[in-house]
């Protein structure tokens, strides 16, 4: 099926772009899929799986194709946002097996921030140039029903112009249940009190069997889709995520991305797609894998990381323009390479990253804006600072030609 409404017509210059891909030594199956993608055809879930299973020179061609499609979609620029993560509580009763962040109520390092503390952190962030706070927390069993609303009110009272990007679909599920409200009523109420957008986290892998193994009683795929679709119907934008590199496989990734694409066709509510590699070091899913009798991998391989960014760019072409490389998961050097493998955004400066560090992540809790600019310049793209909804706030110089790196082009393969 051709994406008539979303892809530009193939023109002479695009034929020239195809010639930039060295198809010698590339399998005929991958060559056919990439040529179809470059000609504006939608890549099917089955074709996506084939791309994810690629090795050797096929990966180089996929990466180059993704880089070309990124250039066509958003040009030779990449973005970041100044934001602060505020994880208001790490107390959670869910026990997701992959999570190293949650604590019991009586644990010595259990934490629940006061409204005053949250407002103060938002003010500090604003004073440091942040345009967004990203607020998520554990599912604290004793939270009063109106806790989520109070968070929004206290931050908006302190910093009215701050964009509040908050509450995962699992928190929406939990809050709606505690408030005896439908998802629609609960989200609408939060929007009326200052919610500006939602993170599309808690998606992990949108597959029934995989989700069952990752956590007991966790939000089902259908519930995740229903909550996000409800947000989109109400006009609330969200991100979309995938957590990969644990007990999952290429066909799960392609199915997940195809589902996100179908949702986007209906409501156009996703601002970006964010691949999040599994961080295994202190994750119970990995450390207890023998007890759990699960064959858990220690996070994605280098090839899987690069393919995730490249194939998601190719599969989502025409529907989601922004593919984010997470420096928290990948590390800065590797995130730079993803900018030439389909990604066009480095996400947020974060200031207080703690969720990934709790699972043993080693890439720190903050990247300064000037370092974000340098990272993007090092990729050969032009940096700009954006707000949550990808409006440009500040442009920076493009890197000097001598500083540019070439496309990583599968050097990681
Ligand atoms: S992932 Fe979220 S819901 Fe699951 S245990 Fe961790 S904090 Fe709780």
Structural class: alpha/beta
Give me the count of strands.
9
Main pleated-sheet profile:
4 strands, mixed
Q: pLDDT below 50 for ≥5 consecutive residues: which ranges?
A: 1-10, 401-413
**Silhouette:** globular
Distance between the termini: 31 Å
Question: Looking across the biggest beta sheet, what order are the strands in?
Answer: 7-1-8-9
Set out the fold topology.
Layout: H1 12-18, H2 28-38, H3 45-52, H4 57-74, E1 77-81, E2 83-87, H5 115-127, E3 132-136, H6 147-158, E4 163-166, H7 169-178, H8 183-192, H9 208-214, H10 221-233, E5 238-244, H11 250-267, E6 270-277, H12 284-287, H13 289-292, H14 302-315, H15 327-330, H16 332-338, E7 345-348, H17 355-358, H18 369-379, E8 382-386, E9 392-395
Parallel strand pairs: 1-7, 1-8, 2-3, 3-4, 5-6
Antiparallel strand pairs: 8-9
The protein binds iron/sulfur cluster.
Relevant terms:
alpha/beta, binds iron/sulfur cluster, 413 residues, TIM Barrel, four-stranded mixed sheet, three-stranded parallel sheet, globular, 9 strands
Can you tell me about this structure?
The chain is an alpha/beta fold. The chain has 18 helices and nine strands. It is 42% helix and 11% strand. The strands form three sheets. Strands 7-1-8-9 form a four-stranded mixed sheet, covered by helices on one side. Helix 6 (147-158) links the parallel strand 3 (132-136) and strand 4. The longest helix is centred in the first third of the chain and has 18 residues, at 57-74. The chain starts with 11 loop residues before the first helix and ends in an 18-residue tail after the last strand. Iron/sulfur cluster is lined by residues 92, 94-96, 99, 101-102, 138-139, 170.
């Amino acid at each position: 099926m051709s994406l008539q409404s979303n892809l530009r017509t193939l023109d002479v210059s695009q034929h020239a772009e195809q010639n930039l891909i060295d198809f010698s030594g590339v399998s005929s199956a991958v060559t056919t899929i990439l040529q179809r993608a470059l000609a504006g055809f939608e890549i099917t879930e089955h074709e996506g799986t084939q791309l994810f299973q690629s090795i050797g020179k096929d990966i180089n061609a996929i990466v180059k194709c993704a880089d070309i499609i990124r250039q066509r979609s958003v040009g030779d620029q990449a973005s970041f946002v100044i934001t602060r993560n505020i994880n208001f509580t790490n107390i959670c009763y869910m026990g997701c097996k992959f999570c190293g962040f949650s604590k019991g109520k009586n644990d010595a390092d259990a934490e629940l921030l006061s409204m005053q503390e949250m407002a103060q952190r938002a003010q500090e962030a604003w004073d440091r140039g942040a345009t967004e706070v990203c607020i998520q927390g554990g599912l604290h069993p004793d939270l009063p029903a109106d806790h989520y609303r109070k968070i929004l009110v206290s931050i908006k009272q302190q910093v009215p112009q701050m964009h509040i990007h908050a509450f995962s679909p699992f928190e929406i599920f939990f809050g709606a249940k505690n408030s005896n409200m439908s998802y629609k009523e609960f989200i609408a109420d939060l929007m009326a009190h200052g919610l500006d957008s939602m993170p599309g986290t808690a998606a992990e892998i949108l597959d029934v069997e995989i989700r069952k193994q990752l956590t007991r009683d966790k939000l089902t795929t259908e519930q995740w889709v229903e909550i996000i679709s409800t947000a989109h119907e109400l006009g609330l934008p969200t991100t979309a995520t995938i957590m990969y590199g644990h007990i999952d496989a290429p066909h799960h990734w392609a199915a997940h991305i195809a589902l996100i694409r179908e949702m986007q066709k209906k409501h156009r509510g996703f601002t970006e797609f964010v691949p999040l590699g599994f961080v295994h070091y202190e994750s119970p899913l990995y450390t207890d894998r023998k007890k759990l009798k699960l064959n858990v991998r220690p996070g994605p391989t280098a090839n899987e990381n690069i393919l995730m960014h490249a194939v998601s760019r190719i599969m989502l072409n025409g529907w989601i323009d922004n593919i984010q490389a997470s420096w928290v998961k990948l590390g800065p050097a590797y995130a730079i390479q993803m900018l030439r493998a389909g990604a066009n955004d480095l996400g947020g400066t974060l200031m207080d990253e703690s969720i990934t560090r709790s699972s043993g992540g080693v890439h720190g809790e903050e990247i300064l804006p000037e370092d974000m600019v340098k990272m993007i310049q090092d990729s050969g793209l032009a940096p700009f600072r954006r707000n949550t909804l990808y409006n440009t706030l500040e442009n920076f110089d493009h890197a000097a030609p001598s500083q540019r790196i070439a496309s990583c082009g599968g050097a990681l393969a």
